[in-house]
Amino acid sequence: MRACFAILIDSFREAAASRILLIALMAIVVVLLALSPLGLTTSVSTQLRPYELIDTERFLRSLVEGKSTADTPAGHMWTLMSDEQKTRVEEWLKPEEATAQPSPDRPGPPRRGRIQSKVLDVINEQLKKPEFYRAEKWASVKMDDELRAADDPSLDVTTLASRNLKRLARAFPQSMDVRDELSVSLSYGTMILFGPLQGAPKQTGQLIDETIIVVLSVFLGFFGVFSSLLVTASIIPRTFEPGEISLLLSKPIRRSVLFVTKFLGGCAFTLLCATVLVTGIWLLLWTRFDLWRPELLLCIPLYVFLFAVYFSVSALAGAIWKNPTVSLILVVVFWIVVTTTGAIHGFVTNGYFQTQQIVEATAAGKEVFIVDGAKKIRRWDAESADWVTVCDDGRGNSLLRLLQQLQFKGIRPRIVTNLDGARIVGVQSETSRFGDAAPATLFSGDQDNNYIREVESTTPEPVFAVFLNRDGQMILPGTRSVYQFVGLSDQVKKTQAFLNRMPFGLFSSPPSRAFEILTSKEMKPLRGDAAVAFNLADDGLVYWNNGTLLVLNRLPEGKYEEGASRIFENSQAAVVASGGAFALCAFADGTILAVDRTNLETIAETNLPDDDKPKFAEFAADGSWGVVLTHAGNVITFDGQRKTFVPWIPQENGSVSAVRFDPSGQLMVANGRRTLSVYQLSSTVPVQAFKGQTAWPYDVFDYIVQPLYTVLPKPAEVNNMVRYLVTGETSEVISGTQDAPATGQTEDLSQQRVNFDLWKSFWSNLGFIGVMLMIGCIYLISRDF
Predict the structure, then answer these.
(1) From CA 181, how far away is CA 43, in angstroms rounded?
(2) Domain end call among 179, 194, 228
(3) Is residue 508 predicted with pLDDT exceeding 60?
(4) Does residue 168 sit in the same domain as residue 255?
């Protein structure tokens, strides 16, 4: 044992003698010292932030209309604006100006989504002006006595802007929602580097976590590993040089033990660098950001483990060829192979397969419809035994459309059918040129017309979905009201269809009389990340909006009125469903509640595993069963008769991509590919299956890519383990996916996520290290030195 310890120390000294170690440690120390003055400064909020401006266009129209009413807040703000700002505001509201060619005198409008930031600049500039508030101009606004009182001329700019922000929010409650009274800025010593940060204060921790992951993956995951390989590549080859090996073998130690000991000694280099960097970041978070994150220290052995995967290849090559250069070349080849295999596997599973899988389903009569990940609506065709495209939007299969599908750009259509399946109805939402939610396109397809897409109208405001009740009425819950579609003339339909084909909705037609408002007054604006459920039993609606669960009941005369409401302490994201006398609410933290829809009192409660999140909730119309689909592809069931959550595991569990109840109460379950199975919830054996045909990439993946990926180690997935230690999550949102405009307030549970199997990755890498070392030991034992 003493001999092994001596060899281990000798290996570390050999690595430490390299100047690379000294340079690496000095670089790490310099980086940590440079980062040490960083911190977060909290102050009162003095600016309107992007996620707080929920309807940019409505606010701009209020300003323009204020030109004729100077005694209103909008009119007063208009008078405070410069001529250039007034011109820009009027241009932003004109779609034709958005496509005008730039000129030297006019560089053209900002790109889509950036207009909102320009609007915020105009607003925030006004908040700093002492003349922003005049009591006579704001007389119609409901405010408390403190805000209504005149400002002291000696007020500093910060306090003045904070007060004016609160007044602004009260004057335009339908356009903005200001709830965070504090803002966070990034400081460097006593100097403010960036701020106030545009995100919500509670998102600061998430931003810090992502920064930590990037820093560790770059400095330890890439530069750290390969700089360590440069230093340690010569350890094993030098060990078995003629003079060196004779001296070492003269000690009472086996060759295999010598080989493994030298391997562990080489890992000490990475251990030292990882310890210094991770410990420094941990202390920085504790002392400067007041974040106690001891779990971060577990990243030290993780990155040593990552290095050990690559070093095991280097060690085996060094033992066989006794040449450091050959060792490095083989490590680079190994890195290219595993990285390429992992990239192909990731592209297929998180790219191509995501566009092909079923993400939504509906059925009625003998008709079954789905929406796939490419946002195409398909119908089951019994003759071809496959899914055929219906309600095509006419955009074809261009290269641009293919790229958009692979990046999940745009928002998938939400579809429903009438009771006999003879008509399909859906809404296609888009984001506006201001970057927030825009009115949706309502379309339909009739069986008599081969389900050809027909544009019905453009909704008056952004809507969450379209529902068909038992009488065939189209109910569309919007961000401020609930609407019923009552129809349009053919000529108006053609006009709106033409305008809606324009890019980004720049020429969308204005709301028409085709929609009847079913609420007696405008509701409080709902955020873009709100969730809505429809109860087919009585046309009731259930909303989840920023921490509030709300019921809207439909009266006999057809109007909606607010029913029970329940406020939760946490304003996290959630998905909801409603059926019979129940409602389901599944939260981002994994808590699932079944509640009584009349009073929203909890009936039953369960929790998802810590590493899973809800994705979708659904209820049978009679309330007999409810289900929650998770991002890990699992199904959680609620028994409405026994009023409890019960285990029910279908054959597709772990890979389910969509669930939906049909009119008879049977549950349709998509298997993550092209198959839709129909279950009676009394059995885990499907009573019917619609198995769509798959293309050749599935065969290549199943018989070549997947086996190769399974056999090879997965060193890149060590970063997923780091993500888990830092964030506590075993899944990550696929970059570029979105099913709703970004709100900046809570996470979007509808976004596609990729889940990590941490233990599978760990055992795969550990097994590879063991195999490499075993081969090296067997080779050395069989050699005659």
Answers:
(1) 9
(2) 179
(3) no
(4) no
- Specify whether 308 is located in the same domain as 271: yes
Q: What is the dihedral of CA 248, 251, 257, 262, to 10 degrees?
A: -40
- Does 62 share its domain with 164? yes
Which amino acid makes up residue 753? R
Task: Check residue 569 and give its pLDDT.
Answer: 84
Q: Which residue's entry shows tokens 């403010």?
A: 192
β-strand partners of 378: 370, 389
Task: Output the pLDDT for position 510.
Answer: 47
| Distance of alpha carbon 109 from alpha carbon 93, whole angstroms | 11
More confident residue, 547 or 741: 547
**Domain span at 84:** 46-179
Instruction: Report the C-alpha gap between 496 and 512 in whole angstroms.
Output: 10
Q: In angstroms, rounded to a whole number, what is the distance separating the alpha carbons of residues 184 and 199?
A: 9
Extract the tokens encoding 157.
């700019």
CB 191: neighbour CB atoms within 10 A? 8
Tokens 């045909």 correspond to: 693
With cut-offs at 50, 70 and 90, classify the pLDDT of residue 249: low
Q: What's 412's DSSP letter?
A: P
- What b/e readout covers 716-753, taking b as 16+ CB neighbours within 10 angstroms? bbbbbbbbbbbbebbbeebeebbbbbbbbbbbbbbbbb
Specify whether 88 is located in the same domain as 64.
yes
**DSSP 8-state symbol, 349:** I
- Domain membership of residue 711 (yes or no) is yes
Q: Are 365 and 420 in contact (CB under 8 A)?
A: yes
Residue type, 16: A
Question: If we measure between CA atoms, which residue out of 453, 357, 369, 359 comes closest to residue 662?
Answer: 369
286 belongs to a structural domain: yes
For tokens 């400095």, name the residue: 219
**Looking up tokens 């068909």, which residue turns up?**
468
The number of domains in the chain is 3
Give the span between the Cα atoms of 15 and 24, in whole angstroms. 12
CATH number for the domain spanning 549: value is 2.130.10.10
Positive or negative, the CA dihedral 773, 776, 782, 785 is negative
- Say whether pLDDT at 706 is over 80: yes
Sheet holding 688-691, edge to edge: 658-661, 667-670, 675-679, 688-691
| pTM (two decimals) | 0.80
- Tell me which residue has tokens 């949102």: 733
Name the pairing type of β-strands 644-646 and 582-587: unpaired
On the 0-12 / 13-18 / 19+ scale of CB atoms within 10 A, 577 is buried
Show Cβ contacts of residue 647 under 8 Å, excluding neighbours closer than 6 positions. 637
What tokens appear for 640 in the block?
């409405």
Distance set, CA 437 to CA 411, 418, 515, 546, 548 (Å) = 11, 27, 19, 16, 21
Mark whether 124 and 73 lie in a shared domain.
yes
One domain, residues 95 and 217: no
Domain final residue, candidates 144, 162, 179 = 179
Residue 759 CA to its chain's centroid (Å)? 23
What would the pLDDT profile of 167-216 be if each residue is shown by its tens digit?
999 999 888 888 778 888 888 887 887 777 777 777 787 778 888 888 88
DSSP string, 668-737: EEE-SSSEEEEE-TT-SS-SEEEE----HHHHHIIIIIHHHHHHS--GGGHHHHHHHHHHS-SEEEPTT-
The pLDDT tens digits of the residues spanning 324-337 come to 899 999 999 999 99
Whether residues 534 and 662 fall in one domain: yes
Three-state SS at 43: strand
pLDDT at residue 380 greater than cutoff 90: yes
Count of Cβ atoms closer than 10 Å to residue 82 Cβ: 10
Taken as a whole, the chain contains a residue count of: 785
Q: Which residue has the tokens 């007389």?
A: 139
Domain assignment of residue 679, yes or no: no
25 and 55 in a single domain? The answer is no
Helix runs in 217-254, H state only: 223-232, 235-239, 242-249
**Where do we find the tokens 């873009």?**
528
Position 16 in a domain: yes
